[in-house]
Amino acid sequence: MTFLRIDPRLVERLRDALHVVIFTGAGMSAESGVPTFRDRMTGLWARHDPQDIATPEAFRRNPQLVWDWHVHLAESVRAATPNAGHRAIAALQDLVQQVTVITQNIDGLHARAGSREIIELHGNLLRLRGFRDDDGRQEGLRLARPPRPCPLCGARCAPPGAWNPDPGLSLAGFGLAAGPVPRCPKCGARLRPDVVWFNEMLDPDLLDQAWAAMENCDAVLCVGASLEVEPAASLPFRALECGHAVIEINPAPTALSALADASVRGGAASALPRLVESVWGSAQGPGE
Question: Of 39, 162, 273, 276, which is most buried with the most CB atoms under 10 A?
Fold first, then answer.
């Protein structure tokens, strides 16, 4: 494996790091065959703009259309496999005391590669949850006691008295697959992919965890992130403000490039294993 040439002082900082954060964007998964939203919309779906269809408003208007669109999108995710960059991140867990992965990707490839501490800021496409205001029935209503979240799917669409009382119910048998939009067997809410759609906020708890990781780590590797979508785009800059070592790996320059301690031009699958090998001496992931 070809080693990267990195300032020896930076190498020492990285080797001394007890907590390393890996921040990944779409470029991390591109080399696994997971294209961007627009790149993967081919054939009949090419005429649908993701900003018009991947929204809660669109799901409210036409849940079946939105469901089918995500089923098509999931085909490339299921066909993808973790690349050498994903495996190098997983291998880093045996070389550093703590490794936290913060990702904007929704494909679950970090977990499949063996990473354990993962913050999925934009959710996971292959996981389902309840649509929180199913068909907008709660819009405009003033309730003395707002409905509690369903303990099974998280939706707030019906009073507890309407829930199926069977304690053995599970979402385990439901998945993002062709067919009618499924409903939660406990509360009856429509199920949707557990991802952050356009016009939706990030989960505040996950965002808080991500900010805390950036503030309390020793070093950050920013991999394949264009840094154009807020608030996630600001996370690596917070690490810089805190004085932590920040290394960027990206084929093209970003707003972080001139500020990072090192900016490596290359793809995740090639440059990331070389970086891990150069600094920590191993980039072999689980099962290799």
Answer: 276
